[in-house]
């Protein structure tokens, strides 16, 4: 009996073990099957996100491809053509699978028209060759699509916004220019053709080889117009035998060189641009420099258009994406176009800059850098020879002197005077006894001496400003000491960045946080040393002189709220302003040449750039001038190497003052 029970128990154990093994195997097999499904689903999603379409054949069921009328090769090309054609990028997908092996996913991605959100897809994973594959239909390209359908898209191009001045005069606009070209049948044959091509090449500044290359294109026929060169806006259309002209759209800059460093220019996109921004297409233009670059997004707007499914018969089956175009914004700047041109012309052949500002509002009325370049040439494609002419010009027309930092020279002396007055060190009545044209504090300065232009034995604040006495201000700064002097300077905008759409390093007091020597302290007091300020920095910081001690930050975009800070007391400026008027009205004043142009105050300056004491360096001529009545305007002008230019900044700024005086009447 006992043996019988042992036998029965053994049988039961064997059966249990066998059943457990079967269950375990089934469980293992189900897990392996699920892993296969999960892997295929994940690989399908990752393939779409990465657009690795070469992987499609190994992920989809062959039978489903055949049923849809595609081969392994053609399905890959189909995806590439459609996704590439509409610029699909930045795809994000969320997916899930249910118990019946249905794979559902939601895709969001960018196209040439913008972002498409939440496109819903659904398919099934089916068993194929001991694995699982995607049951593919054309609806996995876009829902609702059939195998013989196509994807089409249209683009409604946004109109680029214009840049206008404060009076709504265009600084950058959309207009037309002319494209020169030829019709092959009109060129003749043999020597006649050769002579015509040579003449055309010479007159259009291109090569015969280039013309032949254009004529050799596969699409060219005898009656076709073959474009050779797009002329810059405003260029003449000379009569050239064999040449015809047709109108083409262009971006234009009416002030040409006069405002190039403000407006910048646009240019056609390249492969790198398109890679960064897939909404761009070949032939589009974008801002390359200046305001065109700084406000690219606002100016370009957003193209509209439609992406849709087209049937084999050419009918529209369904719309995938439709966007209304948004034309670019008009950017209104504070510049006065007429003043800008006047200030540019006034500099003549000199290299330099003129900046004009309204001290109370901060509005910049003119930003001139000279020499300059014609931005219209860059829009249509500048030739290598034209570019070389600019690039090899020793006066460097591509440099924006508006934002270039210079030593401000003696134009800075009213700032030093203001700090001195507020510290109590400088007084109106104090007189310095100064002998000769050179001075040094003591023998510790070695061979270094400070020079002045006018020899005056008794110098007070008025005399020092009117005659621009370097020694007086050096002595005042030494008496103040570095701590007091720097404390006054730090009330200004040294080290600060302005909220302007311009690239510009901050103004600096010195290379280090401390002068490190009395000589550098003394030199800084009259605008030399390591002091560096752009014309914009100067007109901004000098605004305290025209604005009762209040500094106004610069604005370039119309409608910007004025940002100010109090730097000096009104009483301080009231003391200095009459002396700056005398710089103009007094016969001995350094800006007496401007007398009679209006009730103006001014301060001239000469900043010398030399490598060693005793040698004669390059001298930049500077002037700051402002309306002494109510501070309606302030201008700063710099002429580089004025001996080479033949005229000083004071002489060249006269037309600017005359225009400003009329403007403020």
Would you write up a description of this structure?
Its main location: membrane. The protein is α+β, with helices and mostly antiparallel strands and 665 residues long. The protein folds into four domains: 34-145, Nuclear Transport Factor 2, Chain: A; 149-169 and 254-330, Penicillin-binding protein 2a (Domain 2), CATH 3.90.1310; 176-253, Penicillin-binding protein 2a, domain 3 (Ribosomal Protein L30, Chain: A); 337-663, Beta-lactamase (3-Layer(aba) Sandwich). The protein is built from 24 helices and 25 strands. Strands 6, 7, 8, 9 and 14 form a five-stranded mixed beta sheet that branches. The relative contact order is 0.09. The mean pLDDT is 92.
Into how many domains do the coordinates divide? 4
Q: How far apart are the termini?
A: 132 Å
The structure class reads alpha+beta
What is the CATH superfamily of the largest domain? DD-peptidase/beta-lactamase superfamily
**Outline:** elongated
* Radius of gyration computed on alpha carbons: 38 Å
How many beta strands in the DSSP annotation? Answer: 25
Q: Please summarize the sheet with the most strands.
A: 5 strands, mixed
Pfam families: MecA_N (PF05223), PBP_dimer (PF03717), Transpeptidase (PF00905)
Subcellular location: Membrane
Domain Penicillin-binding protein transpeptidase: 352-657
Main location: membrane
């Amino acid at each position: 009996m006992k043996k019988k029970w042992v036998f029965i128990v053994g049988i039961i154990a064997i059966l249990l073990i066998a059943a457990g093994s079967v269950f375990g195997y089934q469980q293992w097999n189900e897990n392996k099957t699920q892993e296969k499904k999960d892997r295929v689903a994940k690989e399908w999603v990752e393939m779409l996100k990465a657009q690795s379409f070469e992987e499609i054949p190994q992920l989809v069921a062959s039978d489903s491809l055949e049923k849809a009328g595609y081969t392994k090769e053609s399905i890959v090309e189909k995806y590439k053509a459609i996704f590439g054609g509409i610029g699909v990028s930045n795809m994000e997908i969320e997916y899930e699978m249910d118990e019946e092996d249905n794979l559902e996913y939601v895709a969001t991605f960018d196209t040439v028209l913008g972002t498409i959100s939440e496109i819903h897809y659904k398919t099934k994973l089916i068993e194929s060759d001991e694995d699982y594959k995607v049951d593919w239909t054309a609806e996995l390209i876009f829902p609702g699509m059939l195998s013989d359908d196509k994807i089409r898209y249209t683009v409604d191009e946004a109109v680029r916004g214009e840049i206008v001045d404060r009076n709504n005069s265009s600084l950058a606009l959309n207009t037309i220019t002319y494209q020169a070209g030829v019709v092959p049948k009109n060129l003749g044959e043999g020597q006649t053709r050769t002579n015509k091509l040579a003449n055309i090449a010479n007159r259009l500044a291109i090569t015969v080889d280039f013309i032949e290359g254009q004529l050799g294109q596969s699409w060219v026929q005898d009656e076709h117009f073959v474009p050779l060169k797009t002329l810059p806006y405003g260029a003449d259309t000379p009569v050239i035998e064999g040449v015809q002209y047709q109108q083409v759209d262009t971006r234009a800059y009416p002030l040409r060189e006069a405002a190039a460093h403000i407006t910048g220019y646009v240019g056609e996109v390249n492969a790198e641009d398109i890679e960064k921004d897939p909404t761009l297409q070949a032939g589009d233009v974008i801002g390359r420099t200046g305001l065109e670059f700084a406000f690219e997004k606002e100016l370009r707007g957003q193209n509209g258009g439609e992406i849709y499914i087209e049937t084999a018969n050419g009918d529209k089956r369904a719309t995938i994406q439709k966007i209304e175009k948004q034309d670019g914004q008009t950017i209104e700047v504070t510049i006065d176009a007429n003043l800008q041109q006047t200030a540019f012309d006034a500099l003549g052949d000199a290299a330099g800059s003129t900046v004009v500002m309204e001290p109370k509002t901060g509005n910049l009325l003119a930003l001139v850098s000279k020499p300059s370049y014609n931005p219209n040439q860059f829009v249509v494609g500048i030739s290598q020879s034209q570019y070389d002419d600019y690039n090899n010009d020793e006066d460097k027309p591509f440099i924006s002197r508006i934002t270039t930092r210079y030593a401000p020279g003696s134009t800075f002396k009213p700032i030093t005077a203001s700090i001195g007055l507020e510290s109590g060190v400088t007084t109106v009545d104090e007189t310095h006894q100064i002998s000769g044209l050179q001075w040094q504090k003591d023998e510790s300065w070695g061979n270094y001496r400070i020079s002045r232009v006018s020899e005056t034995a008794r110098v007070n604040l008025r005399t020092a400003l009117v005659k621009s006495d370097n020694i007086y201000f050096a002595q005042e700064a030494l008496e103040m000491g570095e701590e007091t002097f720097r404390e006054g300077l730090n009330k200004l905008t040294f080290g600060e960045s302005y909220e302007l759409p311009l690239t510009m390093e901050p103004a600096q007091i010195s290379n280090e946080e401390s002068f490190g020597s009395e000589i550098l302290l003394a030199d800084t007091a009259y605008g030399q040393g390591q002091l560096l300020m752009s014309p914009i920095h100067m007109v901004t910081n000098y605004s305290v002189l025209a604005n009762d001690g209040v500094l106004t930050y610069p604005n370039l975009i119309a409608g910007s709220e004025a940002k100010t800070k109090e730097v000096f007391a009104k009483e301080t400026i009231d003391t200095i302003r009459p002396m700056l008027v005398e710089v103009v009205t007094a016969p001995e004043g350094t800006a007496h040449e401007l007398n009679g142009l209006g009730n103006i105050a001014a301060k001239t300056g000469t900043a010398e750039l030399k490598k060693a004491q005793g040698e004669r360096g390059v001298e930049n001529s500077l002037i700051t001038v402002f309306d002494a009545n109510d501070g309606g305007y302030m201008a700063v002008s710099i002429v580089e190497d004025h001996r080479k230019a033949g005229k000083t900044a004071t002489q060249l700024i006269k037309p600017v003052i005359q225009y400003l005086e009329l403007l403020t009447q």
